[in-house]
Write a structure and sequence with these properties.
279 residues, mainly alpha, 0% strand
Length: 279
């Protein structure tokens, strides 16, 4: 992997991990379209992948540090009685929402990536992702309109189940969890906020899961340097993306996911056509 490819991967990861357009789907499809002969299963790619995820997680922690600090203070009882109860309630909701994807990902992630990880299949699932986003917007009116503060344990579990869809390359984690929130009546800003909060433990967990393999790998010094550079770029991109999306969803509470649905559908359709008839 050269410097240009590393920079492109870093920016792609930092943006698409949070935009509801599937980072995994793009990581499978784009290298093939661009003619990059990169083996993402290679041990040489592992430090790059781990540090990209670490950079994204760091950006989320930095952007939402006030939320996490408030939750931490509440959980250990260092706040007002009301805030302690609320922080512990929200922490439990985050844990509940994280469990389904954490368990299923640990057990079946390799199976899903192997079964659905070809570029044509990933591009096809980008179109499925478009249907999920547009369908969630279309069905949202039936669920009513609520704020994040009204979320229940049942809501969190259902959102967590939606998060499991992202194990399939082409289905967006943030998009699926936001649709889960919308279908429970949560507004766009609240659904996005909760989606990004539960992304942090998932991304951190996925990173830590790969660390033992990384420690055993014989990684050249230049690969590590390139990986650290990519991690910094991914973190910067992820932070800016999060800031943009939180503002966007606060200001757009009607059909806000539709532009991303249109993009996924046409990008997926065009990619399938190119992969089948050109490449």
């Amino acid at each position: 992997m050269n410097l240009l490819q590393a920079v492109a991967f870093a920016i792609l990861q930092g943006a698409t991990e949070l935009f509801p357009v599937s980072s995994l789907g793009h990581a499978v499809v784009l290298p093939k379209l661009l003619g990059w002969n990169i083996d993402q299963q290679s041990p040489q790619f592992l430090p790059f992948l781990v540090l990209l995820h670490a950079g994204t997680a760091a950006a989320l922690l930095l952007y939402f540090w006030r939320d996490w600090w408030t939750l931490f203070r509440g959980v250990i009882g260092m706040d007002t009685p009301h805030q302690v109860r609320e922080s512990r309630r929200v922490t439990v909701l985050i844990v509940i929402a994280t469990i389904p994807a954490a368990v299923l990902g640990f057990l079946l992630e390799h199976f899903f990536r192997t079964l659905f990880g070809s570029p044509v299949v990933a591009a096809s699932f980008l179109m499925v992702n478009a249907v999920i986003l547009a369908g969630g917007e279309a069905l949202r009116k039936m669920a009513g309109y609520r704020t994040l503060s009204s979320m229940t344990a049942k809501d969190a579990f259902i959102i967590g189940c939606f998060q499991c869809l992202a194990l399939i390359p082409g289905i967006s984690r943030s998009g699926a969890t936001m649709v889960g929130g919308l279908l429970r009546g949560i507004n766009h800003a609240g659904a996005a906020h909760f989606s990004f909060l539960i992304a942090t433990p998932i991304i951190v967990g996925a990173t830590l899961h790969e660390v033992p393999k990384l420690l055993k790998a014989d990684v050249p010094h230049e690969v590590l340097q390139l990986s650290f550079l990519a991690a910094i770029l991914a973190a910067i991109t992820a932070y800016l993306t999060t800031a943009f999306l939180m503002r966007y969803f606060r200001n757009h509470d009607q059909m806000a996911l539709n532009p991303f649905a249109y993009y996924c559908f046409f990008f997926g359709l065009g990619s399938v056509a190119l992969l089948l008839f050109v490449f």
